[in-house]
Amino acid sequence: MNVKKGLFSDDFVFFNQQLVNLLKTNLPIVPGLRHLAKDIKKKNLSSVINSIATDIESGKTITESFSRYPDLFPSVYIAMIKAGESSGRLPEILQDLAIYSEKMNKLQKKIKEVMIYPAILLVAGIILGCFIVVNFVPSFLEFRDFLPSGRIPKFFTFLVFLYNHWIKVLVAIILVVGVFFIAKHFIKRKMSISLEKFSFRLPLYGKILRYASLSRFARNLAMLLSSHISLPDALCMSGPSSGSVQINSASDEMQRWVSGGKRWTDILFNYPIFPHIFAWTISVSEKKGDLEEGLFYLADFYDHEFDRQIDIFIHFIEPIIILCIGLLVAVVAILAVRAGISGILGVMYS
């Protein structure tokens, strides 16, 4: 998702909820924002809230004040505030935004959980491997000369290589990772789409990524339309916020299609990124005149599917990684015993 740094964090959710309370209770907004800023833990968000209070105090509208900080507030957020301010429904729309930000906060936490959990287990495996190399290889080197040359396992040769050249190996890994992340910024759009298509086809994990993007797109679009923002503008803003290159590309094309006076559902089925049930539900909802309700239903449906796939993924990946770590320990232990026996025999018969 095209989420700015710190957006949809716990502090941001708290800020949205308190801002709604300020407007609903008709409390003075400027002093309210200044006191609210003191309760925010993140200094950058607290500083922005104080600046917004200063802008409003100087006569600027809420929309103008928030628009000065595009690095924190995305276009979707600003567009909804503008619609609410111009229609006189700002408290209601901010209430929707508060609920929306809370849902997105939970979604992002779950995505991080899916990404961090296997990474922690993988790092644990790497640390265990390093511990084995550092503590086992020196002992092996002490009696390697007693082993018959043809009886030295290739695995030990590899461990000795890592032990003797670990700095070079570490530098090589850092360079490869650095080049990969630098190259990502220069990948053409077609390549980005190809990589995303590949990632969406991955077992289990691909569904998690796809369902998260579909949920964000549907919810963002529904929120914008419910705020009386035109469909072309809503499509233009919902595409980037989905976090999917394919959905963003499709949204651009559909926005041009709709701007030409045509129904966007006429070409929605042409994009494989949207499941058939997704496109069909939107098509039927548009014909019935309750498009927003259909989009909210889809967002909730894919939120549920996202949660289900996360549970499946975690329960599937945990035993596999633990098994791999166990196999690594078992292999090293078996080879160590074999090497020890070979070393003893080599000493006895030398």
Give a structural overview.
It is found in: Cell inner membrane. The chain has 350 residues and is mostly helical. It folds into two domains: 10-105, Type II secretion system (T2SS), domain F (Receptor-associated Protein, Up-down Bundle); 106-350, Receptor-associated Protein, CATH 1.20.81.30. Helix content is 80%, strand content 0%. The chain has 15 helices and no strands. The protein has helices spanning 10-24, 29-39, 43-57, 62-67, 75-87, 90-143, 154-164, 166-184, 189-200, 205-226, 231-241, 245-259, 265-268, 276-288, 291-349. The longest helix is centred in the C-terminal third of the chain and has 59 residues, at 291-349. It is globular.
Q: What CATH architecture of the largest domain do you see?
A: Up-down Bundle
Mean pLDDT: 77
Number of helices: 15
Secondary structure: number of strands: 0
Q: What's the SSE pattern?
A: HHHHHHHHHHHHHHH
Estimated radius of gyration: 28 Å
Key words describing this protein structure:
Type II secretion system protein F, 15 helices, globular, disordered N terminus, Receptor-associated Protein, 350 residues, 2 domains, mainly alpha
